[in-house]
Design goal:
Layout lengths: L1 E7 L4 E7 L5 E7 L15 E2 L1 H19 L6 E8 L5 E3 L9 E2 L7 H11 L1 H7 L8 H11 L1 H6 L2 E3 L1 H10 L3 E3 H6 L3 E2 L4 E2 L1 H7 L8 E3 L10 H7 L6 E7 H8 L7 E6 L3 E7 L11 E4 L10 E7 L3 H10 L5 H8 L10 E3 L17 E3 L8 H25 L6 E5 L7 H11 L3 E4 L3 H8 L8 H10 L1 E5 L6 H19 L2
Parallel strand pairs: 1-5, 5-13, 9-12, 14-20, 20-21
Antiparallel strand pairs: 1-2, 2-3, 4-7, 6-8, 10-11, 14-15, 15-17, 16-17, 18-19, 21-22
Length: 494
């Protein structure tokens, strides 16, 4: 038997096929070959077509079945991981009413800020564990205020993963941890956040029924089977937002365990069993995948919008062949890049910086000294420093760190980046050869919240190396403090 996992990102969709008996990955494919388009109709807007997501999922599924030659009848379970905080609106016929407003869209920042001020810090901290921010509820309020005809036609609000599950099964549903990522869940009452919905004057019936993360969420319909190449025997058995899923993929389940991701955006995701947080504007608190009313594990998510996207911009701008070549060039520049400082924040408002939009900046460029190698190293260091800065925010707010794990499919492949983070945090970083798609496929095997077999599969198959801090951190610390001063000086000018 086999399980298939979907990882719906904003850049691409990854599909993984695993052996259900061993948890070993058989093959992963990516669709499309080039990055998916993000539509920016106005400054700080970001939209994508849900129908395009579905088209790529169908093609990738057919491709992986063809490439591996597996019997499609033996693919029995499907797991879904997806880009968080998005808004998909569908009408009564199940048709999308507009493009999805995705995670890095900043149009609702002011609405969330106004709601936070009116509802008050204490209410938001107690009920939402977050400020309303720029999350799904605030985005829905923006649609109601600015596109009233579309809002009137809306039948259900779906998160991106809920939409894919609907296309597969024909059923409208969401999860508790899905609702928390949209600030649509009230932790105090253990129910939908009607207080915020009422504040925004939003229709309660837009919220679909709630299902569990690890359960039978419906069989594939005949139409979906035809489009994907699967059979109606396949069942959706898991769904989660990408960051909780990435943490699960790295076996991050207990308080003190931390997952780090450095892709287009950067994330520090720390599991805790605490509920009293001061930082609810800079840091997000979401129900983890193993959250229950009895076991209230929360994932503290600190996001850095402008992360790997800066390194990608440099690659495209200088027409480099690969990131490995850039890393090699960066290694020829010294720690601190001879004074060149890079602030990586160029992908919308930064929540950890109080929703300020700094833009990407390179400071102290000396035209007689600095070249591409300095720019590449400064970018890697700047992104690493943003992780260190974020970790400082978390630790000041009672977050304990005992283990840090990261995947091997992003900036953690760079020795400069990984060593800089480990050295300044003073913590080893375990690197695992896994992906969100593989994790989503494996998660379909979790039954009755028994994570032991799942954890054994990760430990036995995936650990590849451990990045250790450099004992003499003097040069790293000096460079970081200089970067931090430049960051704060820049923030104070806004």
């Amino acid at each position: 038997m086999y399980s298939i996992g979907y990882d719906l990102g904003s850049s691409s969709i990854k599909v993984a096929l695993i052996d259900s008996a061993t948890g070993k990955s058989i093959k992963t494919v990516q669709e499309p070959a080039q990055e998916m388009e993000i539509l920016a109709l106005h400054s700080d807007w970001a939209e994508q077509s849900p129908e395009t997501w579905w088209k790529h999922i169908c093609k990738a599924t057919r491709d992986i079945i063809k490439d591996t030659g597996v019997d499609k009848n033996l693919i029995t379970a499907i797991g879904i991981s997806y880009q968080m905080h998005g808004l998909v609106l569908i009408d009564k016929k199940g048709k999308t009413l507009r493009n999805a407003i995705i995670w890095c869209d900043s149009r609702a920042v002011d609405l969330g800020k106004e709601a936070y001020e009116k509802l008050g810090h204490d209410w938001c901290a107690t009920h939402l564990l977050n400020s309303p921010g720029n999350f799904t509820a605030s985005k829905l309020n923006w649609v109601k205020n600015n596109e009233p005809e579309i809002y009137k036609q809306a039948h259900k609000l779906l998160l991106p993963g809920d939409y894919i599950a609907y296309k597969l099964t024909g059923q409208y549903a969401t999860t508790i941890n899905g609702l928390t990522e949209g600030t649509l869940w009230d932790y105090s009452s253990n129910s939908v956040a009607t207080g915020l919905l009422d504040h925004y004057n939003l229709d309660h019936s837009l919220i679909p029924v709630i299902t569990q993360n690890f359960t039978n969420q419906g069989n594939i319909t005949k139409d979906a089977a035809i489009e994907t190449g699967l059979t109606t025997n396949a069942t959706v058995r898991y769904r989660s937002g990408d960051q909780p899923n990435n943490a699960l993929s790295l076996n991050i389940l207990k308080p003190g365990e931390v997952a780090a991701t450095a892709g287009t955006s950067g994330v520090i995701y720390a599991v805790t069993d605490q509920k009293n947080f001061k930082e609810i504007s800079k840091v997000n608190q979401f129900a983890h995948v193993n959250y229950t009313r009895e076991n209230a594990t929360v994932g503290r998510l600190l996001n850095i919008n402008g992360c790997g996207i800066q390194y990608r911009w440099l690659k495209n701008t200088f027409n480099e062949v690969s990131y490995n070549e850039m890393n090699t060039q960066a290694a020829t520049a010294p720690i601190g890049s001879d004074g060149l400082v890079a602030l990586p924040f160029g992908n919308g408002a930064e929540r950890m910086l109080d929703n300020k939009n700094l833009g990407t900046q390179f400071l102290n460029i000396n035209l007689n000294i600095h070249g591409k190698s300095h720019m590449y190293r400064a970018a890697l260091e700047g992104i690493a420093f943003s992780f260190v800065y974020g970790m400082e925010i978390l630790k000041k707010d009672q977050t304990q760190v005992t283990v840090i794990r990261a995947g091997n499919d992003n900036l953690f492949r760079s020795e400069i980046f990984a060593t800089t983070v480990a050295t300044l945090i003073g913590q080893e970083i375990e690197i695992y050869d896994t992906t969100g798609a593989v994790g989503a496929a494996r998660a379909t095997l979790i039954i009755d919240n028994n994570f032991t077999p799942f954890s054994k599969a990760i430990k036995g198959n995936d650990h590849i190396k451990t990045i250790r801090p450099i004992k003499d951190n003097t040069a790293y610390k000096k460079t970081y403090l200089n970067w931090k001063k430049k960051l704060l000086d820049t923030i104070n000018t806004l």
